[in-house]
Prior knowledge:
Blueprint: E1 7-12, H1 18-27, E2 32-38, H2 43-52, E3 55-56, H3 59-64, E4 68-73, H4 77-89, E5 93-96, H5 104-117, E6 121-123, H6 131-141, E7 148-156, H7 159-165, H8 176-192, E8 195-203, E9 208-210, E10 222-224, E11 230-237, E12 242-248, E13 258-263, E14 267-270, E15 281-283, E16 291-292, H9 306-317, H10 325-344, E17 348-349
Parallel strand pairs: 1-2, 1-4, 2-3, 4-5, 5-6, 7-12
Antiparallel strand pairs: 7-13, 8-11, 8-17, 9-10, 11-12, 13-14, 14-15, 15-16
Amino acid sequence: MKDVKPVKVGVVGCGRISDIYFENLTKRFRITEITKCCSLHGGSAKRQAEKYGVTACSMEEMLADPEIEIILNLTPAMQHKDIIRKALEAGKHVYTEKVITPTPEETQELIALAKEKGLYFCTAPEHFMGSAWQCARELIDKGMLGTVTSVYATMAHNIGSFADMFDFINQPAGGAGFDYGIYLMTAMVSLLGPVRQVCGMLRTKYPERTHNQIMCPGFGEKYTYTNEDMMMGCLEFESGVMGTIHMNGNTIMPIPPAFMIMGTEGALSLPNPGTFSGDVKLFRPGNPNPVDQIPAHGFPHDSRGVGVAEMAWAIRMNRPARACAQRGLHCLEVLTGLSESSRTGQYYTVKTSCDRPAALPPGYLGIPPITFAEEGAIVR
């Protein structure tokens, strides 16, 4: 493995989320090497380039660099289609932040292009590779829950506090249902497989809002919020599992999220699907008190970038990548189906499907100061 050539990465978009990607992909994984970065106006790219010792450039220069194999797209969802298309047309593999695009139709076009070009195309969120979720996967696969029968998840926050600070929250796919719901759906689908049909309710309960962040432009001014601030839904999985999701952007912070998987022989309580680790509690028959599970898997802290590194190993090892765009498309269609169901008052049948990602092996704990210990889990 020492002789495997690192995969060179170019980063498009150098906003706040980029720091953890730069940090992990330059220091935590030996398979990746960020060499160039760019941003819309160039200022943030220059700052990140100086901070992490890479080269700031234009996107055109990045795409023309024959050594760069992966384009890491960290821009808002509205910018994704054009950036991803240009990268694929330039012969680059692509890893993109969520959601892939605001609509399933646009995403399908990009997946078809990647397939035509013979390129890898992957997407966040990659949190399902985290220690808590891989622990849950192991327990489910070993039959500790018996037959899984249902799942429910909730996430709640104050959408206004985010909309005040981040423009993308008020752009397509930036609302409580899509921007947060993609974490819930990715976790559910990675553990339980694809969804068959859904019914949902979506609302923009408070469209008229006021900027309350004193450090942000427009403080005190009124604005119109156009995205959903609440989404609720019922799901039927292809396996027969029934599920519910509850996303409320009109409450206080923080409210602990809830994520429960129930089966005929046990139940699991899991952490926030927007995190890589957290409490995993197993309930078994005859015992009202759950048993805390100690994950034997790596990636227990903020591991954004693991999806990029896993895809880089997939490229080198000539195998499928776990954070594939097809699963991202399926989860996006489920959320879109909930919105469509709300509009029509009818069930929505999901047209796409996907595979469960291969589980990660336990034992690669990455205990400091052992360098690269976790990375062994994503090689094969």
